[in-house]
Design brief:
about 230 residues, alpha/beta, Rossmann fold, binds adenosine-5'-triphosphate, ATP hydrolysis activity, transport, ATP-binding, ABC_Transporter_VariousFunc, ABC transporter related protein
Length: about 230
């Protein structure tokens, strides 16, 4: 498979001098579900926002499908940020209409199927949704685009353990196998079953990038056990 996402020597220092990313290099291929794992403040959101074209790196560059991040790459990248992208006054149906207007690749049929799977009703008002139900909606909107690269920032942080299983099932069920999905989380144990690869990021640096199968075979450990070892303080 071709390189879908290429991150070259990316550094990011925010105004105020806080260094969030340090010399990040990554190659991500198509057809994978990848975990971007790290503790709070390790740089996961910053890396996703740079790849989504929302913020600029201080130095270095990112390419999606061989093109530098810009308008062309934004058309094939679907990003679910860690805060809702919808307005509280909207109903679920308004949010779907809004996405359909905004994104040419938005698949309304897929959105309807996912909403049903997620137990969300078109008439539900967004302000009345619980945090977990709102996350299900944001995930539905992000995954209903026919994108090539999906980046989901903490998609299951607010949902209870039972619902987590359902959401992971939705990700796998509605995943188009030509695309790749990068999921940031620190809830490793709950979610590792769906990962093909994992990237461990600590203090803005990539400390490990490997296939889950290799971690299990080489180290005889689950990803969660490896995570706890790498991040032990
Ligand atoms: N807009 C900003 N201005 C200044 N510093 C920031 C900004 N956004 C993030 N940071 C800092 O950059 C570092 C990395 O933050 P980032 O949000 O990328 O981490 P994260 O791994 O996504 O964390 P979490 O799991 O808590 O969401 C942190 O030290 C954070 O305080």
């Amino acid at each position: 498979m071709e390189n879908l996402l290429q991150v070259r020597s990316v550094n990011k220092t925010y105004a105020g001098g806080r260094r969030a990313l340090h010399d990040i290099n990554l190659n991500i291929h198509g057809g994978k579900i990848i975990g971007l794992l790290g503790t709070n403040g390790s740089g996961k959101s910053t890396l996703m926002k740079i790849a989504a074209g929302l913020i600029q790196p201080s130095t270095g560059g990112v390419e999606v499908n061989g093109k530098p991040v810009g308008l062309e790459t934004k058309a094939i990248v679907s990003f679910m940020p860690d805060r809702p992208v919808t307005e509280p006054w909207m109903k679920v149906s308004d949010a779907v209409a809004y996405f359909k207007d905004f994104y040419e690749d938005f698949n309304v049929e897929k959105a309807r199927n996912m909403l049903e799977f997620m137990n969300l009703k078109a008439n539900d008002r967004i302000s009345s949704l619980s945090k977990g139900m709102n996350e299900r909606l944001q995930l539905t909107l992000a995954l209903s685009r026919e994108a090539q690269l999906y980046m989901l920032d903490e998609p299951i942080g607010g949902v209870d353990p039972v619902a987590r299983g359902k959401i992971l099932d939705a990700i796998v069920e509605f995943y188009n196998e030509d695309s790749s999905i990068i999921i940031s989380t620190h809830l490793v144990r709950d979610i590792e079953r769906i990962f093909d690869e994992v990237i461990f990021i600590r203090n803005g640096e990539v400390v490990m990038h490997d296939e889950v199968e290799n971690i299990r075979l080489k180290h005889g450990k689950s990803v969660d056990e490896m995570f706890k070892e790498v991040y032990a303080e």
